[in-house]
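tool_call: predict_structure(chain=1)
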Amino acid sequence: MAASSFDPWCEFAFGVSETSPGGKEGGFNADDPSRENPTWRGIELSEWRDWRHDQTLTADDMRDLLRLSEIKEISHENYWNVVNGDGLPAGVDVLLSDHALNAGPETAAILLQRMLDVRVDGKIGPITLLALRGFGTPGQSIIKIRNKMEADYRSDRKFPEDGNGWLARLNICTALAIKLAAAASIAPIGAVSQT
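tool_result:
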């Protein structure tokens, strides 16, 4: 429920400055011939074209013009909001938003809904949020979600070649999520968002 988790997640995922190589989503991979859709700091070219309403933009345009402020706007709209980041407990918001960035928002929502044994519709709404409250503390929820994410990664056909990177990112993101959950649990009464 802490909107303030968005900025630490962006710092983790994308880096903190316009000139930094980025966080975990740092590379520009247009030179990788196996990629049909180049990415820059985690944003796919097709996604950026849709965001800008300009299908003529190229990978070179993206590398030269896409800035951290726009990456944050895109990630807030296309990932954070779609998984209802502001409605989730601190830490859980970060873990699910990062999973949405990597696997897609619907996949992240479905993972949570299946864990909670609620109707699966790929949207985190009031029923999913209510079920999450009974799932344990935010810290317990983070560990359960993290473990399910790892199991899903291990079952993916690309795990043998990409799995070490996926798990390393997952572990670092989990540590951030636990830190944010702990900070929210000891925040002064007036500092906790009531949204």
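agent: The beta strands are 39-40, 43-44. Proceeding to next step.
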